[in-house]
Amino acid sequence: MLLSNFKYKKHQQHLLQLPKIPQMLEDITILYSPVDFYQSLMQAIRGAQQRIYLVSLYLEQDQGGERVLKSLYAAKRKNPNLEIAILVDWHRAHRSRIGSNSDTNANWYCRMKQSHPGIDIPIYGVPVNTREALGVLHLKGFIIDTKVIYSGASLNNVYLHQKDQYRYDRYQIIHNPLLADTLLNYIKQYLLTSPAVNQLDNPARLKSRAIKKDTRLFRRTLREASYSYQGEASATQLAITPLVGLGKQNSLNKTIHHLLCSTRHTLILSTPYFNLPAPLMYDLIRLLSQGKQLEIIVGDKTTNDFYIPENKPFKIISTIPYLYEINLRYFVRRLQRYLDNGQLTVRLWQDHHNTYHLKGLWIDNEWQLLTGSNFNLRAWRLDLENALLIHDPNQELHHSCKEELTLIRTNTSIIKHFTELQRIAEYPVKVRKLIRRLRRIRIDRLISRIL
């Protein structure tokens, strides 16, 4: 018991020693739907006075993406002194969506620029690695004047709920000049200064192979890069610590480990894909063995954007949601005794044909992590990720967090027994055959590292 308390205090001490930016409660707004997110983003763009920096995995060539980009051009036309830039993943911008034969987003950016002569809104491609499968730009946070709009959402129809389908995420608007400056300074210091980062809205843009050497050097730089700021908040006030990381041993990964291990009573974890890195899996099992209360909210396999119903043509990529469910079934089966005694609650989110993309940690009504990280092997090793760690020692956010969690749980069902999740033998024939073939030659382990 003494050793356990010592380790707990060690993890708590690490968190308390992190530099923290003071935050006023009234300057945090939680949005509860993708429609609210879209409307708030458009309103913020229209009202911007000084700067707009949008960082996203992608800005897509569809109705939602076009409305966002056109609103930026309108804002720049209205206020020529407005500083605007968009940063997206380099590789993602150079391909169409999986299963689509549409033109690339990069080509669309060029056409949009040509159709708005005299208005310069640079769209930069950020190559986190030489290939998309080996790492992408997964930073989150839109900086508009002194506000940070933080969400795991990218910019397209489904994230912005422009048609009949939505992708559910978390959405926070945080008014904090120092936080906004901190995120922006990182972008300007480490991203926009790199020779590997180039404009995508240029028809004569470089090819990926031409920046291969620069990309490798850029990745090395990013491994060492961090947010720089003066954290003046005390351990007794509402505060935010921005975190960023790339690679297995980065500060974000370490902080997530310390967060889990500092749990006194209750931990809630939400992730769309159940593919936890081994260190996180060990942390969760250790917490259960110590008698802590855990809740895991994960998307049902049908809420994965790669899921294809049985009545549609089979594609190899559609096997991925089943691989995640296999992981979850094994996890629940291994820990069934904790479901039985009520310590562990596992919820599956499903809402008709909509998809789930919601990530986060809630710990003891004191700590809250806003992040785009999927808590999976890819996020842990390959992608450039960030997060906002909120310290709320006086539980000022308790009611808003409770409301957010209530809404998240609305479309969930609780798993009582591991047999409620399908076995491989119950999967569609083509899925079943492919999974067994992959497992026989152990390629499923490689897939789990890059998806």
> How would you state the average pLDDT, rounded?
94
User: Uncertain segments of ≥5 residues (pLDDT<50)?
Assistant: none
Strand percent estimate:
15-25%
Taking the sheet with the most strands, its summary is: 10 strands, mixed
Helix share of residues? 25-40%
**Backbone structural class:** alpha/beta
Assembly category? single chain
Secondary-structure map with pairings?
Layout: H1 2-17, E1 21-22, E2 28-31, H2 34-47, E3 51-55, H3 63-78, E4 83-89, H4 90-93, H5 105-114, E5 123-126, E6 137-138, E7 142-144, E8 147-151, H6 157-160, E9 167-168, E10 171-175, H7 177-191, E11 198-199, H8 212-224, E12 239-245, H9 251-261, E13 266-271, H10 278-289, E14 293-299, H11 320-334, H12 336-340, E15 344-349, E16 355-356, E17 360-363, E18 367-371, H13 377-381, E19 384-391, H14 398-410, E20 412-414, H15 429-440, H16 443-450
Parallel strand pairs: 3-4, 4-5, 6-19, 9-16, 13-14, 14-15
Antiparallel strand pairs: 1-12, 2-10, 3-7, 5-11, 7-8, 8-10, 12-19, 13-17, 15-20, 17-18, 18-19
Please give a structural write-up.
- It contains 16 helices and 20 strands.
- The two termini are 39 Å apart.
- With 451 residues, the chain is α/β, with parallel strands linked by helices.
- Helices cover 38% and strands 20% of the residues.
- Strands 1, 6, 12, 13, 14, 15, 17, 18, 19 and 20 form a ten-stranded mixed beta sheet that branches.
- It has helices spanning 2-17, 34-47, 63-78, 90-93, 105-114, 157-160, 177-191, 212-224, 251-261, 278-289, 320-334, 336-340, 377-381, 398-410, 429-440, 443-450; strands at 21-22, 28-31, 51-55, 83-89, 123-126, 137-138, 142-144, 147-151, 167-168, 171-175, 198-199, 239-245, 266-271, 293-299, 344-349, 355-356, 360-363, 367-371, 384-391, 412-414.
- Helix 1 (2-17) packs across helix 9, helix 2 (34-47) packs parallel to helix 3 (63-78) and helix 9 runs parallel beside helix 10 (278-289).
- The protein is globular and about 65 Å long.
- Strand 13 (266-271), helix 10 and strand 14 form a beta-alpha-beta unit.
